[in-house]
Amino acid sequence: MAADDIQFNTDVLDVKDKQNIDLSQFSKRGYIMPGDYTFRIKVNQNELDERTVSVYPAETDKNRSVACLAPEVVKSFGLKEKYLAALKPWHQGQCLDVTALSGVEVTPDLGNGLLAVSVPQAYLEYSSDDWVPPAMWDNGIPGLLADYNLNAQARHNERGGDDNTVSGNGTVGANLGAWRARADWQANYDDRSGEYSSGQKQWTWSRLYLYRALTGLKAKLTLGEDYVNSALFDSFRFTGASVVSDDNMLPPNLRGYAPEVTGVAKTNARVTVSQQGRVIYETQVAAGPFAIQDLSTAVTGTLDVRVQEQDGSVQEYKVNTASIPYLTRPGSVRYKFYAGKPTSYDHHADGDTFGTGEFSWGVSNGWSLYGGMVSSSKYISLAAGIGRDLMALGALAFDVTRSDAKLENEHRHGQSYRVSYSKTFDGTGSQVTFAGYRFSEKDFMSFADYVSYRSDYGDYMQSKEMYTVTFSQQFEKLGLSAYLNYSHQTYWNNPAEDRYSLSLSRYFDIGRWKNISASLTAYRNKFNGENDDGMYLSLSVPWGDAGTLGLNSSYSGDASSHNLSYYSRLDNGDNYRVAAGGTDDGGSLSGYYDHPGDLAEVTGNLDYQHGQYSAAGLSLRGGLTATAKGAALHRSNVAGGTRVLVDTGDAADIPVHGYSNNTYTNRFGKAVITEVSDYSKNSLSLDINNLPENAEATASVAQATLTEGAIGYRRFNVIAGQKAMAVIRLADGSYPPFGASVRNAEKQEVGLVNDEGQAYLSGLKPGARLSVSWNGAAQCAVTLPASLAGVSQNGNLLLPCH
């Protein structure tokens, strides 16, 4: 460790007793007294989790100090293997000397609680501005969590009969090391008044499972109940084990994509996204078009979408989350292995033991081969395909799957063919996110079909053809954006299903009115042989500093509605919308308010339709995270997902930057931030411009790169308490030397001694004990009085130091 001697000219100091001066803590760069300290470790620009680091006197110079970096700490630096192996141990093998590598420097900053390690990039594994190598990933700390999403709706029908529903879903879990235990639950209560109505209650543990990251394999191990997540085969539920390569562990530019669910709500509505009976996502949305974009990338297959309107009507449709063409970067292999037994939603085994595996291999720069197999005692299917990067023409993939199923009275075998395409046209502003076609012969059976056939006595939907297109177009000269989504599914034994959605939007100015937005959304959902057609028109005009005035019209079937609305976002992050208008049946009023609070996100809505109904809705979305470091209630992002516990000591009401607005630490100095990403750098910071008057932060920014589901922990050095001028006096009546350091029990420096023992101290708490150090060691301690008014000298707090 570099520690150059610095000489001071004390003659320039205006100090009465120039023989009683101690500037030793400033005379050696990076010098701190030997002892154990808690540091945030920063390797170049990448910050690791907080560690306890011992500081020892240097073996060659007892006036210098050296930080002991334990082998497990150095392993997290991301050094290449050959350089890590070359480091020499010291202090009975407890420490590694990283400064033996030319150019490496270790600099402790006790004031900021930071240990900075500067390492030439040549010694390190690959990293980028938003991604670090696996050695730097943080598994977090042990803890418990419980996330929830509750929705309540009440509707009074003017013509008789009330409808009250309460639903909820969430996740409880526990973390220990790299392991995550999770249990998903969902509940529903429906009470309809009327002659033939009665309350219905339901509570279900929808999924129980364990998982952990296998960082060396860039994969995820899951044990318990899971869904086959495949780009080749249909998704189905099973109980068993899986090892799946995880794209999230790759740099961001090499990752996959998450599905998006879009639609149009005619009124304030509850949107439920489920898969094979398990609720994946549920939320309340305001009237108008909506887009759910924060689904997990692990969601695949066919999703069921249910939009329950406040007027009692329901929209239902399916969304196919087909992936983009199966291409893999050259020389890489992505793989998935599953084994277990298919299970029904009520956790019962629903078929024979199976095994499945698939892979994708980047053969060269532009070509990929992929394939897979599903096998059980009486069923087998094989798939093989090829993907081609056509460069300027996009990406294309083609595959064939053959199935062979032994049923009770027959032996079925058939084939399914699929082609998919993806392309972004930079020159024209066009993007085909995914376009695909699949044809299945009548006797082709996916494994999900085979399981359904056996459990439902031959009654299952036999897929025939499927088309999927997602297309967007930018018309820059017109300022117009267009988005088209089309899916068409036919069956050998059921009516066809279609879903069309077209959106057009444009921003423009009229005189002094700027950024006016006009949009049109039209859709058709064809399900069970019935069409649900609709159209939504909107015109938005900025109004005031944070408000928007809107004119909206919707048409659905033979019904139409028109309303004038006002939307605004408040300074604290809350937002609301009020609307008034009319429908074919009379006038209407509605309101929507969203409060992303520290303890939970609360959303409420009201609807009134003259002569028809009045309705109200309320949703709560939040969670509790509890660890040995502390606990806090908080907003929730992904149920059971990654989060960071922020600790500001005993400093309460400290603002921490969140996703949309600040989150404040609770009375115990704890806050949980859930808007964080897996395997990517997350920056956490205090809002130093809005700190309470009695608080000071020596460092306001921290980083965390967390594995999936981790409970990260970051502690900020915040000094909270009263401030006062004091005089520190020794037992013999003299004073500590000029430059002596005053520290609290957490070793935070709360002041420096000036001439004649004077010190301006901060972060004072009645009855607390402070240590005073000079000549490289703690020399005495003072105890603050129960009242900081205390005994004074010349108006200053008098503190005897014993």
TrEMBL record:
Similarity comment: family membership: Belongs to the fimbrial export usher family.
PROSITE patterns per the UniProt record, alphabetical: FIMBRIAL_USHER (PS01151)
Coiled coil location: none
Domain (PapC-like C-terminal) ranges: 728-783
GO annotations of cellular component type: cell outer membrane
Keywords annotated in UniProt: Cell outer membrane, Fimbrium biogenesis, Membrane, Signal, Transmembrane, Transmembrane beta strand, Transport
One BP annotation, GO: pilus assembly
Localization per Swiss-Prot or TrEMBL: Cell outer membrane
Pfam families hit by this protein: PapC_C, PapC_N, Usher
Protein name per Swiss-Prot or TrEMBL: Fimbrial assembly protein
Main location as per UniProt: membrane
Topology of this chain in the membrane: Multi-pass membrane protein
GO molecular function, a single term: fimbrial usher porin activity
Matches recorded under PANTHER family: OUTER MEMBRANE USHER PROTEIN (PTHR30451), OUTER MEMBRANE USHER PROTEIN YFCU-RELATED (PTHR30451:SF10)
Domain PapC N-terminal: 7-152
NCBIfam families with a match to the protein in the record: PRK15284.1
